[in-house]
Design goal:
43% helix
Length: 126
Amino acid sequence: MPFSTKQHTRQQGITLISWIVILGVIAFLTMMVLKLFPIYIEHMAVNSSLESLASEGEPMGPTEIRSKLVKRFNINDVKSVNRKNITIERGKGVYQVGIVYEVRTPFISNIDFVVSFDDHAEVRAP
């Protein structure tokens, strides 16, 4: 006697509410990336300016270091760093150049992102 029972199987997939939640999370993360991406692109410009200054072979004084950095920041359209953020300390045969700054960008309503950067390089002293 053959065994014949009809089994009704229902396919179950993702519901409309689940799609809305998934799309909401994706939209939230995309918005975060779009807010933070320009900050990190600008930081890469700051870092490359500092590295290129350090890779120059010629010795420089503090005023020349500061003015070259500010010029490079102007060329690279860096708005978050100014002269006050640049520190220069004398070492043995080198100047320790540091750039410490913080960027605050609004996210949603009264929620902001605050990103801190601290970069250092050595430049030959005369």
